[in-house]
Known about the structure:
Blueprint: H1 2-7, E1 10-14, E2 34-38, H2 41-50, E3 56-60, H3 70-78, E4 84-88, H4 96-101, E5 106-109, H5 114-130, E6 141-145, E7 148-151, H6 155-167, E8 174-177, H7 184-194, E9 202-206, H8 212-220, E10 221-223, E11 229-231, H9 233-236, E12 241-245, H10 252-264, E13 266-268, E14 275-277, E15 281-286, H11 290-295, H12 301-307, E16 310-313, H13 324-339, H14 348-356, H15 362-376, H16 388-395, E17 401-402, E18 416-417, H17 428-450, H18 455-462, H19 466-476
Parallel strand pairs: 1-2, 1-3, 3-4, 4-5, 8-15, 8-16, 9-12, 12-15
Antiparallel strand pairs: 6-7, 10-11, 13-14, 17-18
Helix pairs in contact: 2-3, 6-7, 13-15, 17-18, 17-19, 18-19
Amino acid sequence: MLEHSMKSAQILLVSKERSPLDLPWISGENNGWQLETVVSGWEALERVHAGPGPDLILLDLMPGDSDGLHPLGWLRRVRPDLPVLVLASSDDLNQKPQALRLGAQDFLIRSWPPQQLEAAVRRSLFHYTESPESEIASDGIEQIGEGLFFVAASPSMRKLRAQAELLAQVNHPLFILGENGSGKDLAACLFHQLSVRSGFPFLKLNCATLPGDVLESELFGAVNANGRSKPGKLELCQQGTLFLDEITEMPVSLQAKLAQVLREEYFVTPGGESRIEMDVRILAATHVNVEQAIAERKLREDLYYRLSAFTVHVPALRQRKEEIPLLLGHFMNQLARRYNLPTRIFSPAALEACQRHSWPGNLRELEQFVKRYMVVGDGVMGNGRAGTAALERNRDMASVSFSGADPDKGRAGVPFEWSEPEAGASDLKSLVQSVKGEAEKNAITAALERARWNRKAAARLLKVSYRTVLYKIEQYQISPATRYSPGQGT
Length: 490
């Protein structure tokens, strides 16, 4: 079925000048792909809205066309699962980071050999037909950027999604409230992707991670030792969206300067060289109580009122526990691809413990748990020796533990704790290095057995290339006589 879908794939070429005859490798006899051409991003959007297909969009970037990437953001919003490849000249290679940031799956150079271009298209079509992300919208998971997803499978998150759809149409600043790790940055990215600014930069600045002088230069720019001006994010983000996380950690003096810029709607570059009219939408966020921050003079009242024309709240994970099974599976799939490890099915005991836990670290804590569960399974829950101290370590991401305590009744409960298997293996990288070989060997052996030792079929089961399977078979000296241990690497 996969082979059939790739052979009959429909490719939409968005090009102002080029014709299908310039790209003979698309409609060659070897693949028989169907090619359709439109001349603008608007026509492409109408084509996508009109009905089924296309299976892939090829966005032809004309030399020196600074607006050529604008349709990309809208296309990704309408069909987040649809692969979009950018075709450009080697002179426009500097636009690759922005294209990938806006959601392009690949950035191709016209001067590449036809075989290499065809292989890139084929690889993207294969990813589209094989990846479970192609049906992501129906599962309540929405792709909003490269590797970024917004989950709206609970009433509270669907309400937030509806607010984002509404507030994306206005151009006013927005204040985002929510606990640490709840996903305020994902909400900000969603607001940007849904807005008319989605084709322009989305930049982030965490006010809690930088000293005041560095934060000011990052925001407004600076003059280096050679006397050259380095633009700040306000200048780099023109026509786009700037997300200021943990705004209450910004020095009060810098808050005053930002409030003045918002009031006057312009700023002066470092050294007073030029005046720039500000065309940037500001999104600000904090996890602290705003009224208390204003009372303690950590947040200027005038700045708050300028940033809070609209305010939204991202609920904590404990307030949307119906999403936990979906998030567990989502993180498991993402991490398995990232670390080239097999996925693991969560046991009923693990799912029950996840539903009981209050998740003080929210999505960050949940992701850390999935990282460890992917490697050691139910061993992550240990033998239940510790109590409150285990939860505190879990909050710091040093270990994962669950308390069976009822938070409303205050019972001690039976905690689950995983102790690291060896000293010095406290992060995923070192942990994976210690067990990855055995896990890979067992996973490949199991796939080969399921495929009756058909190596190409095993590669399809593992979702890796045939060459990778051949290399791993040789590396681990796998043969039909190899014994597979079902308790490992599953």
